[in-house]
Amino acid sequence: MPSAAESHPPLRVALLGCGVVGTQVARLLTEQADDLASRVGAPLELVGIAVRDASAPRDAAVDRSLLTEDAAALVERADIVVEVMGGTEPARSLLLRAIEAGAAVVTANKALLAEDGPTLYKAADAAGVDIYFEAAVAGAIPIVRPVRESLAGDRVRRVLGIVNGTTNYVLDQMASTGRGLDEAVREAQDLGYAEADPTADVEGYDAAAKAAILASLAFHTRVSLDDVAREGILAITADDVAWAAQTGHVIKLLAIAERRDATGAEAGVSVRVHPALVPTSHPLANVRGSFNAVFVEAESAGELMFYGRGAGGAPTASAVLGDVVSAARHRVLGGKGPQESTYAELPILPASAAVTRYQVRLDVEDRPGVLAQVAHALAEHGVSIEAVRQPTARGGADVAEPGVAELLITTHAAPESALSATVAAVAELEPVRTITSVLRVEGA
Questions:
Q1: DSSP 8-state symbol, 194
Q2: Is 210 labeled as catalytic in the residue annotation?
Q3: How many whole angstroms separate alpha carbon 201 and alpha carbon 234?
Q4: Residue 258 half-sphere exposure, CB side, CA atoms within 13 Å?
Q5: What per-residue confidence (pLDDT) applies to 1?
Q6: 293 within 8 A of 252, measured Cβ to Cβ
Q7: Which residues, other chains included, contact 240 with Cβ-Cβ below 8 Å and sequence gap of 6+?
Q8: What pLDDT does 89 receive?
Q9: What are the 10-residue block averages of pLDDT along the chain, 444 residues in total?
Q10: Helix/strand/coil for 304
Q11: Neighbour-count burial for 185-219, b at 16+ CB within 10 Å, e otherwise
């Protein structure tokens, strides 16, 4: 008697893109064909791979007879379309064409989803097909499905995560070796962690796109890339990293999404990406190298942490294949995956409304009364001091110039608007020579 997989017609899979991830997806579809068929209840047949140049050299795992430069025709003869080509166009047009033709869609394209996800969600809903995107956030780490489905009966309060492996590797190397930013970035490029143009990583664009997706899922509210306050790591120095260690912190580029239920104009969703000091006691502080981790705080479930490889061909392909299996099962057994949930329609708060803590390093004249002036400036803006340190050596190494003292001030939590105004006011004080560094403190 034939098995269910043997009796069901094959499901046609089209692959858009054959880079590092696409190559691994093609390999897994071929090597694990029997297992995948058993899990789905039908064979999965890779019917084509759309590429820009079919004559270009390819990995031996890719069947060159499947390559085509006619992506539009390919998507119209598929049951499931997998998009790993990246970029906004032509990815958006091709996915919309696939959905219109009745195909389920699996994408790893965080930039497209953060910029124009609602267009795809609306089209998929109207056509009655699935759209899955687990691989768009944190690679192999299963975070989209838990937030979208497993926590659907809970209320997520906060999502705090390291979602860019390149910057995490760079900052980790700066902390462990004392290297400067430029040198650490070059090493990341040599190892393949960073692109030749690392702008999307080091300036926080990649993390911001992922933050927008996670916030949309967590808070049932549409959050776009433009809603995310973004600051990269380009201003981080070796001295900042050294000081972080002395005060019991590490510096991480964090994606932070918070729901605030305060009354009036302050209620809503705050989403931001920026480097921050994380206490060494916090789980995120121990996320090393190119790994990613996402820390979720929910009312009933409490604190949850998801950790693993956030990038790379095989890890990302694993997440893609998980989505392919889910979409394929629905084709065989009926049913449909979760739709976009935007019922909450919470307002997006400006960056100035975020509540955080600052650690400020400044050079001041070494004479009596200076600290009192600085403390008075903070008090005038409603910001209180948690701790003050006055070291005798700069960064633990170079002795400060005569007549100049270095202060390290950590504040209590306050709105971003008050903190930034305070720093501006302190910089104008007569005995203040310069503000050396301003870093936020998160996870305390």
A1: S
A2: yes
A3: 10
A4: 20
A5: 42
A6: no
A7: 251, 437, 439
A8: 95
A9: 67 96 96 96 98 94 95 97 96 98 97 95 96 93 95 96 95 95 93 88 96 97 96 95 93 96 75 97 94 96 93 89 97 93 94 94 92 93 91 52 86 94 95 95 87
A10: strand
A11: bebbeeeebbeeebebbbbbbbbbbbbbbbbbbbb
Tell me the two tokens of residue 355: 């509540």
pTM over 0.85: yes
Token output for 254: 């964090």
168 token code pair: 């995490």
Q: Are 213 and 110 in contact (CB under 8 A)?
A: yes
d(CA 292, CA 288) in angstroms, rounded, equals 8
Distances from the Cα of 425 to the Cα of 139, 174, 381, angstroms: 43, 31, 9
Q: Which amino acid is at 103?
A: A
CB 233 within 8 A of CB 167: yes
Residue linked to tokens 């990613």: 292
Does residue 315 have a cis bond before it (omega within 30 degrees)? no
Measured in residues, the chain has a length of: 444
Residues 228 and 241 sit within 8 Å (Cβ to Cβ): no
Catalytic residue of the set 110, 122, 210, 336 = 210
- R_g of the chain computed on alpha carbons: 25
What's 398's DSSP letter?
A: B
Give the C-alpha separation, 380 to 383, whole Å. Answer: 8
pLDDT of amino acid 274:
98
CA dist 357 and 283 (Å) reads 19
Instruction: Give the integer Cα–Cα distance in Å for 234 and 212.
Output: 21
Calpha distance 75→86 (Å, rounded): 16
Residues pairing with 251 in the sheet: 277
